[in-house]
Structures are given as structure tokens and as C-alpha cells.
Amino acid sequence: MAAFPLALVMGFLAGFIGAIPPGPLNVTCLRKSLQGERRDAYRVAFGGAAVDTFICALIGLGLGWILEKVVTNPWVRGTLALFLVGYGAKLLLVDARRDAEQTDPETSRLQFMPRPADARGGFSRFPVLTGLLQGAANLALFVNWTLFISFLVGHRLFVPTAAGAGGFALGVGLGVFSWFVLLIELVDRWRSRAGAWASRSTIVAGVLLVVFGLYFTWRSFEIP
């Protein structure tokens, strides 16, 4: 059991730091926080953290070959990448217009304002599933965790046992989720001072997600 706490700490640090670079999940959590949808942002973050946890658990237990057969399939990668394109297009074509019309129908084309924190956006849009799919769409996730865990094993910093793999995977999930909690809380606290950035967050998020999706789609069929 001595391997568990060490693996937990290493996993937490790796997950927290690894979640910082900009990506689809950061964009979505940032946008939802700026729009006053903090609970949905947490659910998206949970879905994304669950993907990292699942991947690290399988790799740590020596079952990474199962995932490899899936993530190396260009049609699977391409489908997940196109989900980002579709989600980004939805933000641009549907959500941005809806947010603007809820604020001021007369000037909705140019003045986009965030919704109040207590406003509801209609039916549930399954934010946990959104986090799962956006996390899975990251092509580098499986490769990065495989290389990192291999490095730890090679330097005897990680013991590939059930306890070690479980501790590391749990730590990664907690670390990833903790980063998003920090991001969400900071954005929510300063949301009222974000000014024009907050008012256009839906458009910016939509553009970024479309760009990420198109890039991942290209990479899906470019990587042999």
C-alpha cells in the first residue's frame, strides 16, 4: 500500500499541470463560467477528468493496448474531432444568437451579453457527456499519458500494480478536476469585470472549438 500515496501525489501533480495548456475543455469551462453557468462548467470538467482517469488506469494496469486499437482508428478520431466542430458551430449559430436575444432582441446581432448566473438555458445539454467527448477528442491524450507513465516506470517512480495504477489514475483525475475548479472559480469571481470579453465569450469559444476540431480532424487522417 506504500505505492498508493506516492502514486496519488504524482498523479495529482501530473493531472493538475497537464490540464493547464489551452484546449477544448479549458475553452468550454471558461465560456460557461463567463456566461454564469458555473454548475455546467463543473460537470464538463468532471467529464474531462473522467477521461484522463480512465486512460491512466488502463495504461497503468498494462491494458493500454485496448485503447490503442480504438485511438489509432482514424474514423474514431475523426468522428470525435468533428464533434468539436459541430459543438463550436452550435455555439456560433444557435447559442450566441439566443444569448443576445434574451438580453436585447433589437441589437442582438452586435451586442452579446452574458446571461445572469441564475438563468437556465432550457433543457439539459448533458454537460458531463460534453466533457467526456471533448476530452476524448484530444488526440495527444493517450500518447502523452503513455509516455509519461513509461518514464515514471523506467525511473522506478511508479510501480505498475493495482494499487499504484489506481492511485495514479485517481490522482490524475483529482488533479485535472482541481485545475478546472480553480479556473472556474477565478473566472466566476472576476466575471463582472471581464467586460467585452465576457459579452463575446460564446463567439470566441465557438471559433476556438471549430479551429481545434478542424485541426484534430486533419491530424486524424494525417497520422498513419
Globally, the shape reads globular
**Unreliable stretches:** 107-124
What's the main sheet like? none
Mean pLDDT: 80
> Into which percent range does the helicity of residues fall?
over 70%
Approximate strand percentage: under 5%
In summary, what is this structure?
With 224 residues, the protein is mainly alpha-helical. It has ten helices and no strands.
Structural notes for this entry:
By secondary structure, the chain is mainly α. It has one domain (3-115, 125-222). It has ten helices and no strands. Helix 2 packs parallel to helix 8 and helix 3 (38-60) packs across helix 7 (140-154). It is globular.
Record the SSE blueprint.
Elements: H1 3-18, H2 24-34, H3 38-60, H4 64-71, H5 74-103, H6 127-136, H7 140-154, H8 162-190, H9 196-199, H10 201-222
List the main descriptive attributes of the protein structure presented here.
mainly alpha; globular; 224 residues; 75% helix; single chain
